[in-house]
From TrEMBL:
Source organism of the structure: Streptomyces phaeochromogenes
Pathway where this protein functions: Cell wall biogenesis; peptidoglycan biosynthesis
Protein name, entry field: Ig-like domain-containing protein
CDD domains: LDT_IgD_like_2, YkuD_like
Superkingdom: Bacteria
Xref: InterPro entries: Big_10 (IPR041280), LD-transpeptidase (IPR050979), LD_TPept_cat_dom (IPR005490), Transpep_catalytic_dom (IPR038063)
One Pfam family matching this protein: Big_10
Amino acid sequence: MNGRPISGASVGARTRRGKGALALALGTLMLVVTACGGGGDSDSGSGSGKGGDKDSGQADTKVSQAVVTVAPKDGADGVKTSGALKVTAAKGKLTEVEVEDTKGNPVEGKITDGGATWTPDTHLAASTKYKVHAVAKDSEGREAAEESVFTTLTPKNTFVGIFTPEDGSKVGVGTTFSVNFTRGITHPEDVEKAIDIKTEPAVDVEGHWFGNDRLDFRPEKYWKPGTKVTVKLNLDGVEGRPGVYGEQAKTVKFTIGRSQVSTVDVKTKKMTVRRDGKVIKTIPVTTGKPGYETWNGQMVITERLRVTRMNGETVGYGGEYDIKDVPDAMRLTTSGTFIHGNYWGGDAFGNYNASHGCIGLRDQRGGGDRGAPAAWFFDRSIVGDVVVVKNSNDRIVDPDNGLNGWNMSWEKWKA
């Protein structure tokens, strides 16, 4: 009998408390909504949120006006190795350009035109995938970026350079670094640019073309003994002639040894051997007889043969001689001039000239006596040593007949 009034009173109390709680919750919600709206400016009192807060950071959300363009486009294939790669920026300036192959090897380049353009310093390698990442900033400092991945062409026709001296060689002061190309080159500047030579100590080294398939490098004067030379043949991808590309990427290092320059005087029939500027021996010789005079000029040893065959037919002298066991022979010209041992010359050495143009030194058949003049000279010579011939009745040897570019003036060499 007492339950119903108690029950009724209880329901009424809950109803009132519920309404009060709901009102409180709604009031709190209104406060939260007003606070999050950003319009509760105590100065204006409008609470509308129009106009925004100047310090709200909305300006930072604007997109950069800079536009970066990468050529070739992403996914391109068969791209030319020269002239195709270029990055540009409009309504902004390039601040960063990174290009590398799949092995992480970078492609160096420069940003030019006040930040509007980037181009590579050299050609690209053939059959290689590259990735480009470029960033530019607009006038407000906002960045825009672009990326591209492309693959260079695979050439159908290629060439390589056959070079001397070999990697790791120790050579004489008259050495020239010579490259003979397997195809004639019609873009010589591009090929020459792809060959980089650095020396320690530093010295100016210039290249000179003989025809369209040979390129030699040398300093103005003979190398300084001890010089270390590093040559980078970056020919992979360089277009040597239309549609013909290099396929060679190699580093070659060689060192210049002691200085040895020997002078042959045709009149006195003697050779003076100088080591580091000091005379170490004078040797009687025989040179070219009348009608077969030895070339004048500076000649460089390019090949050393402990024994070789010399046949007159190979140099246009018919069957005048054929000696199968010439000892201690060293080549001075491509055309066949040697300085070599001679065991058949009798008393010619120092007395009269009896050869067909070579420089002969007394030797023993088979070269067994290493104290004989030719053997002594052979054992103390290396590729790159210089032999100078003077007072001959013949002209100066051609600069491209062997590695004898020293017979060309520095001005002509550079030209």
